[in-house]
Design a protein that fits this description.
The chain has 1 helix and no strands. The chain is mainly alpha-helical and 144 residues long.
């Protein structure tokens, strides 16, 4: 056996070892791919019902949000209506109310003045002749 034959044997043994390593790697990779396929299928079977339930929950939440939006719109309309009604009531009752209070106040003043004059006239009629005696008179009667 010369050197070239020895080199060929070494290359053949190294090639056989490399081939065994490659076959072992392919077998291991095939097993890993099978495990991965089973895991993906398992996740898919578990995830699909969860996604369907999630979709149902989202649909219910959307329906509730639409309902709340409708309620808020109705509340805004009621608020606007009550605001308009209170503004209208204020405008309708404030001016007549103010006039009634002013009339009552004026009537009260007039009644007090008339009472004072009548009280003054009755005092003056008992001791005065109806004419003023002057600014320094002792009787205190006023005319007019």
């Amino acid at each position: 056996m010369d050197a070239s034959d020895a080199a060929a044997v070494v290359v053949a043994v190294a090639s056989a070892i490399a081939l065994v390593v490659l076959v072992w790697a392919v077998v291991s990779l095939t097993r890993t791919m099978g495990d991965l396929r089973r895991s993906v299928e398992e996740i898919r079977t578990e995830a699909l019902p969860v996604v369907a339930e999630l979709r149902s929950t989202v649909d219910q939440a959307n329906a509730e949000l639409e309902r709340v939006d409708t309620l808020l719109g109705t509340a805004e309309n009621v608020t606007a209506t009550v605001d308009s009604a209170s503004r209208l009531a204020y405008l309708a009752f404030s001016n007549p109310g103010i006039k009634a209070l002013a009339f009552a106040s004026g009537t009260g003043r007039a009644a007090r003045r008339l009472r004072r004059r009548r009280a003054g006239v009755s005092r003056c009629s008992s001791g005065c002749s109806g004419s003023s005696s002057g600014p320094g008179s002792a009787s205190g009667c006023r005319s007019g």
